[in-house]
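Worked example 3 (structure in, sequence out).
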């Protein structure tokens, strides 16, 4: 289920797109999207030793445009590749990244499991999977097994103000959404807007 290359202490990385860290079962792992593959690194290692790497998972179809990684409290790894959302798991015994399930494809806002221009994924404080379905001007929410829970949007989302980044509070349950129009919109755990800030200039990497 995983393609391995250059395992061990890395000499350097190129084209890093996203990176997360999580403590799981008394281990600290770093999850990195780099050069269109997912890498799991030992967070306690002085050299960030690469434990596993995969450029294709489960279907033997190489990743095309990996753009985001998110990890829940028990170590499930979610990967966004274009309009495909993968749930994967790191196997510490075999040192592989294994496929658990996958949803996605191209569709419209009412399609629970289809997306258009999906751009980011995060995990909230209850392990819900929250994804920015950018061109459909909405946020879609799933449980940890990628079963659809809800789709929500905002009157502030538009063709010039698309949701492009999502970040969930660890404790408060809020979901923060960065838009292409440089707005930061906060939704509470009931998916109601509680705050909206218009920013003059901002980097898309801030959340």
């Amino acid at each position: 289920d995983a393609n391995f290359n250059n395992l061990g202490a890395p000499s350097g990385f190129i084209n890093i797109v996203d990176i997360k860290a999580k403590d799981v079962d008394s281990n600290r792992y770093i999850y990195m999207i780099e050069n269109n593959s997912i890498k799991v690194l030992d967070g306690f290692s002085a050299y960030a030793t690469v434990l596993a790497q995969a450029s294709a998972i489960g279907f033997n179809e190489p990743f095309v445009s990996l753009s985001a990684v998110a990890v829940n409290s028990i170590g499930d790894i979610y990967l966004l590749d274009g309009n495909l959302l993968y749930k994967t798991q790191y196997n510490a015994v075999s040192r592989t990244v294994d496929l658990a399930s996958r949803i996605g494809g191209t569709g419209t806002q009412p399609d629970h499991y289809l997306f258009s221009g999906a751009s980011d994924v995060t995990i909230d404080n209850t392990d819900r999977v929250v994804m920015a379905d950018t061109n459909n001007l909405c946020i879609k929410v799933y449980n940890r097994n990628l079963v659809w829970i809800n789709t929500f949007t905002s009157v502030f989302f538009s063709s010039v103000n698309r949701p492009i980044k999502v970040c969930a509070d660890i404790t408060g349950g809020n979901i923060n959404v960065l838009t292409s129009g440089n707005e930061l919109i906060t939704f509470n755990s009931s998916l109601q807007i509680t705050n909206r800030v218009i920013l003059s200039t901002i980097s898309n990497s801030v959340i």
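Notes: The longest strand covers residues 16-24. Confidence is low (pLDDT under 50) at residues 1-11.
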